[in-house]
Amino acid sequence: MVREGSGRPGPVYWQQRVDYTIAVSLDTATHTINGRETIRYANNSPDTLRYLWLQLDQNLFRDGQPRRTPQSSDARFAARGFKGGFVLDGVSVVTRPGVRA
């Protein structure tokens, strides 16, 4: 019912939707980026969304961050000597009346 044999969407097919609004500024003197991001997530599934996962990979190399195994800032996908990471000033969740979270 979700997909036909050909792979085309079937009668009960649904797809999630995510829209991002990002505004950033670069401070070349302090080598920092400051910004604000709004993520609009539309839950189109027939199920209730019980959690939302936000993965911040760059914090793998931030000093003092818990991790399963220590990561070297010289690892294959790391910037050499990078010690920074994300700093979240706040996270909020807003749901519209009548919309399933």
Distance between the termini: 24 Å
Number of helix segments?
A: 0
Could you tell me the radius of gyration in angstroms? 19 Å
- Low-pLDDT residue intervals, each spanning 5 or more residues: none
What order do the helices and strands follow? Answer: EE
Find the count of extended strands (DSSP E, 2+ residues). Answer: 2
Structural class: mainly beta
Helix content: under 10%
Provide a descriptive summary of the structure in words.
0% of the residues lie in helices and 22% in strands. It is an all-beta fold. The chain has a two-stranded antiparallel ribbon. A hairpin with a 4-residue loop joins strand 1 (17-27) and strand 2. 1% of the residues are buried. The mean pLDDT is 78.
